[in-house]
Amino acid sequence: MNKYKTLAVNTAVFAIGNIGSKIVAFLLTRLYTANLEDAGAFNTKEILEMCANLLIPVVSFSITDAIIRYGLDKNYERQAVFSNAVMVLLAGAGGFVLLSPLLLLYRDIRAFVPLLVGYIIISCFRQLSTQFARARNFVKLYAADGILCTFSLFLFNVIFIKWMHLGVTGFLLSVMLSDLCSGISVWMLAGHGRYFSKEYVDKELLEVMVRFSLPLIPTAILWIITGFSDRIFIRHIMTPRDAGVYGAATKIPNLISMVSTIFYQAWNMSAITENNSKGRSKFYSRVYDAYMAMLCLAAGFIIALDIPLTRFLIASNKDPAYKMAYQYTPVLVIAVLMMCFNQFLSSIYTVSKQTQRSLWSSLVAAVLNLFLNAVLIVKYGVQGAIAATFISYFVCYLIRIVDTRKLIPFRVDHLRFFSNLTVLFVMCRFVQAKPPLFGLWLTLSLLLLILTNFKPLVQTAKKILHRG
Questions:
Q1: How many CA atoms lie within 13 A of 326 on its CB side?
Q2: Are residues 399 and 444 in the same domain?
Q3: Which residue, of 182, 213, 244, is where some domain finishes?
Q4: Containing H/E element for 14?
Q5: What is the number of domains present in the chain?
Q6: Is residue 173 in some structural domain?
Q7: Around Cβ 327, how many Cβ atoms within 10 Å?
Q8: Do 201 and 238 lie in a common domain?
Q9: Does 251 share its domain with 208?
Q10: 374 and 452 together in one domain
Q11: Judgement on whether residues 408 and 274 belong to the same structural domain of the protein
Q12: Cα gap 55→65, rounded to integer Å
């Protein structure tokens, strides 16, 4: 099977396993907005998620990224890779429990600290279990777990939030139980137990893995700061209600992230296994061309469908303020698009074992985002936060598109990139201003996007079918 077909097959498997579950995850947005007390309660739930996402890479030392990088590499023993990762996670979890009382200093989450600690540790365990399944090429098991985990999350949310009315506490319990079921089931079905033993611990490899993972900790934190700091600024400069509406609006742009994540899971495996192959640069060029085309088309369709998607996914019966969410979505879609391009480029740092270079570009984005939030939200409100998010991701992209091509030279069609951005921004204006016949203008814009991006998709399809 050629490398293009392998990538396509793995992407299809991940898509089958993830699309249904991701859609269910987006439907949870409606459940939360319809059943949590108000937009302020939704914001509390978002803050807890942000805290968890900030602390998971710290507690785990981002060792799950090293599991993929070294577990797929045939030069390393998988028993040693996995045993090293387990020991690192156990040490991180133990230290986190001892230091967890410090979380009580954050007043907004004080009532939920014990559950938050459990949420974080269990999520780390699930990541360890599922990522090692990927490293062992159990792609179908990994995909099936994605379905089961999300449906169990949905079921637990219905039980704890809709039926038992436990609010934010119900959300935390739902995540903990679904992650625990997922982590244990994958561990048992994949037979991870036989890969773990203290005797398999390789101190030399452990040092290599930790050296690889450590720069990823601040990198992950910086990306989370870039993605979530706007809500904190909005909450304190404006109101928790505004922050809650903004948080709900971000769920629709994350549909782009869903498409990207499905592809990235397969791409990361291909990038590692094809790292030393001939024609690597041409492979990257063709795949990136198709990736750009796919995501820009997806972004165009989501922007065009912004208003009906907002009405469907965000319930406004609990708080009429949610009706404004559609105004925030379009430019956020483009911001998330830039984040996805940055994610693709991060795979080059992973393959090249240059994770420290990823750190610096992430640092620039985070610092710029914090500065712009402080300046623009005061003057422009929520739209200022959206502009700050896009600009910081865009600057990071400019840095990475130059830096990564020093590691792996590959061709990028800059003209098509900027043409796509221009069309997408014009579509944003149509949605927000609603000029006469704006539906017709949106349709014409979509046709232009299709014409612009048709060729790279066809070329990649021919490679998959051995016709080019």
A1: 23
A2: yes
A3: 213
A4: helix 3-35
A5: 2
A6: yes
A7: 18
A8: no
A9: no
A10: yes
A11: yes
A12: 15
Both 96 and 154 in one domain: the answer is yes
Structure tokens at 242: 């505004």
Residue 31 is assigned to a structural domain of this protein: no
Q: Do the Cβ atoms of 109 and 137 come closer than 8 Å?
A: no
131 lies in the same domain as 246: no
CA distance 349 to 380: 36
What whole-number distance in Å separates Cα of residue 394 and Cα of residue 390?
Answer: 6
Task: Render each residue's pLDDT in the chain as its tens digit; 468 residues.
Answer: 566 777 777 677 666 656 656 666 667 777 887 777 766 777 788 889 888 988 999 999 989 888 988 888 888 899 999 999 999 999 999 999 999 999 998 887 888 999 999 999 999 999 999 999 988 988 888 878 888 888 898 899 999 988 998 888 999 999 999 999 999 999 999 999 999 988 898 989 999 999 888 888 888 887 777 777 888 888 888 887 788 788 778 878 877 887 777 777 777 767 666 666 666 788 888 888 888 998 999 999 999 888 888 777 776 555 566 677 778 888 999 999 999 999 889 888 888 878 788 888 888 999 999 999 999 999 988 899 999 999 999 999 999 999 999 888 888 899 999 999 999 999 998 888 777 777 888 889 999 999 989 888 777 677 666 644
Instruction: Evaluate whether 174 touches 149 at the Cβ level (below 8 Å).
Output: no
- The domain containing residue 465 runs over which residues? 1-17+224-468
CA separation for the pair 359, 340 (Å, rounded): 16
Is residue 120 located within the same domain as residue 242?
A: no
Asked whether residue 123 is assigned to any structural domain, the reply reads yes
CA distance 378 to 382: 9
Q: How far is CA 103 from the centre of its chain?
A: 25
Q: How buried is 243 (Cβ within 10 angstroms: 0-12 exposed, 13-18 middle, 19+ buried)?
A: buried
Q: Which amino acid, residue 468? A: G
Do the beta carbons of residue 257 and residue 398 sit within 8 Å? no
